[in-house]
């Protein structure tokens, strides 16, 4: 490794280490990374190297922790370690065990960083641990599921669930592979300020990147190389926001029109809210409801930057209380995109695979149904109700909608003619990373009879 390469690598490792530590307090991880970038102002080469390294660490996180627990003979889990030790050890395992890096070089880099950013004691632990990885060999797979777990970096239980859902091992492998591909940066163009073709040409010319059109929506652009978001005047001017095409489709399917009253029940941080305002030409009213104060503030910031704040009315509250506090049967359209397991976002949030638990799939559907029911109470006769999630699990999607329709005969499913059909629900829409090159997503559109 040349001295220049060594300097770039050390800078990249520092970006990743500081991001991992900061992300334990600030979510999501990519937002934490942007904050670190502003603090460090690293070289372009280091930014590029760090992006790949961070993605690699996040996608293997559960396996990295297994190795740490095994080598250090931890009886509980890695959370008992100091935060700097824990995250430096994750980088060490990724580099030495999975990427065949030189243990001595990795140990020296991490030792120097932890000594400077934390303390000498933590640095000594990290160096000794990294050198101990020289002789580590991952365990032999016990069966096919175990092999897939270690080869594709996914929890065993999650692979097993997808096997049950799809019924085809080859399709599950295709999904695992898609989850491990770093997706392009996907942006939604603010058509109230600029034409998509005009912005695409500007980005290509100014930043020397490849810009590809979206698959389903004209306002979506994809940039494989990514963009220096925090440094871009186009971002500050509100010419675009970061949003996956599947998420943007939810707003497009609901199709809010100028002059309508629309409710976004789980609105923050504002991707769908601002998209609907854009589709409405800034005319009408969007009632944006969310329980998270920090994320709601981000919604206001995004809306102001995009020039649509004047048509958005924000309410900080539990969405389930909205009908009682704001009224019933007043909205032309209501969008309900509740908290979910978010397994569909694994391609862009690689650590999500290790955060999902089977308990979530038992707990969340009740909460999701309650939010859908509350949203329905605000739809006036003849209005529209859209339910969407970034989950691929039927219990969060079709089963929630089916229960709702059984108990609310005044609503009926309307056909969504995009993507694949829902599981045993042909009117609904499903998108998958391995089939549509988007996040995994579910959309069901319902109409209320007059």
Automatic annotation (TrEMBL):
It comes from the Archaea. It holds the Pfam family RsmF-B_ferredox. One of its GO terms (biological process) is regulation of DNA-templated transcription. The keyword S-adenosyl-L-methionine applies. InterPro entries: MeTrfase_RsmB-F_NOP2_cat (IPR049560), MeTrfase_RsmB-F_NOP2_dom (IPR001678), NusB-like_sf (IPR035926), NusB_RsmB_TIM44 (IPR006027), RCMT (IPR023267), RsmB-like_ferredoxin (IPR054728), SAM-dependent_MTases_sf (IPR029063). S-adenosyl-L-methionine binds at residues 266-272, 290, 318, 337. GO terms for molecular function: RNA binding; tRNA (cytidine-5-)-methyltransferase activity. Keywords: Methyltransferase, RNA-binding, S-adenosyl-L-methionine, Transferase. Transmembrane segments: none annotated. The keyword Nucleotide-binding does not apply. Residues 175-449 form the SAM-dependent MTase RsmB/NOP-type domain. The active site is at 390 (nucleophile). CDD domains: AdoMet_MTases. Belongs to the class I-like SAM-binding methyltransferase superfamily. RsmB/NOP family. This is Fmu (Sun) domain-containing protein.
